[in-house]
């Protein structure tokens, strides 16, 4: 069987995600490994064409990685028949227009989350992609991380019995930018540029809950802008217009309750930057990005509330580590491989633009809940 080279226009490769995760650790790593094996024994080999705004940055990246083609002209690359896939990791508010143009040009679409700035726009993109008959996908990388893959293994084994609740804790301190450089871009703190932790993280929480547990049926959230003044990449002081913390309560179909805190204004006292505790009738687990620990009902200690005595509990020592039992590739790369198989061999790919739109639905509902103080139900959205 002959191998197929697939041209991919990659927009946003000068950014944090576009460069490190998508270009170098995924597409170039797959290309350099000889491509992805398809069921018929042939291979699909991705060939990136870099797209962006800065000629100089693109030229530098292309030279560093031996990439032949790069351009600042999106329209030109979209009218090029050798390009089959358009990938977008631009700043969120630049995504919709570019994806729309790529669908109109008949390209398959793969995009970072959130797939657009609003639910209406995200749903419209999903509908346009379906009408155009192009394959489409959204990055849902956390599902491919070792900790969550181990959690999935536990769920599939029936370890938990009936799952009752999930508690997630995500966050770390993002420096304000005055006396120590901020480790996130300033647009993250500007609502008018697609910033805000709800828009950033609720799409992640949505696909984790949806794919591992059950569809989300309602949300109650409280958001805050705890740090109102920040300093940007040029050292200029600016006012944060977007939320930097969100305290969310999600009710899932079937009654599971999930509570997830997201904050860029907390200091870490956890083993990992995100951790989810899942409690079930037969066992509990705590999963992070890499590790997962469990406690079965048969080894659950009998905790007794007695504030007058020193607690002999040593609770954290009473959990067992879930072994790897397999090699875990980079999560972004694993999802890219699935998407390439989806494009070329029609392999199943549940991470489509409609799933991406449901992530936006949760983010918008969360913001609405915070504004109104009310619990917001999520109606099913369809194409
Ligand atoms: N999957 C994940 O875990 C994950 C993590 C972080 C960010 N993201 C998503 O990836 C996207 C990019 O985030 P990032 O952290 O890499 O951002 P970044 O600021 O590092 O990169 C943004 C990219 O967009 C380009 N761009 C296009 N128009 C722009 C404009 N008007 N202003 C500024 N930049 C512009 C930049 O040149 C750059 O290539 C966002 O949509 C974000 O939500 C996903």
Overall description:
The chain has 383 residues and is of the alpha/beta class. It has helices at residues 16-32, 55-65, 74-78, 92-104, 119-132, 146-157, 197-212, 331-345, 353-372, and strands at 4-11, 36-37, 43-51, 69-71, 83-88, 108-111, 136-138, 163-171, 216-224, 229-231, 237-239, 245-252, 257-263, 274-280, 283-287, 292-296, 320-321, 376-377. The protein has two domains: 4-141 and 331-352, Rossmann fold (3-Layer(aba) Sandwich); 143-327 and 361-376, Dihydrodipicolinate Reductase, domain 2 (2-Layer Sandwich). The chain is 32% helix and 25% strand. A hairpin with a 5-residue loop joins strand 10 (229-231) and strand 11 (237-239). The chain binds nicotinamide-adenine-dinucleotide. The site of nicotinamide-adenine-dinucleotide (NAD) has 19 residues, from helix 1 and helix 4. Residues 149-285 form the GFO/IDH/MocA-like oxidoreductase domain. Residues 50-135 form the Gfo/Idh/MocA-like oxidoreductase N-terminal domain. Keywords: Oxidoreductase.
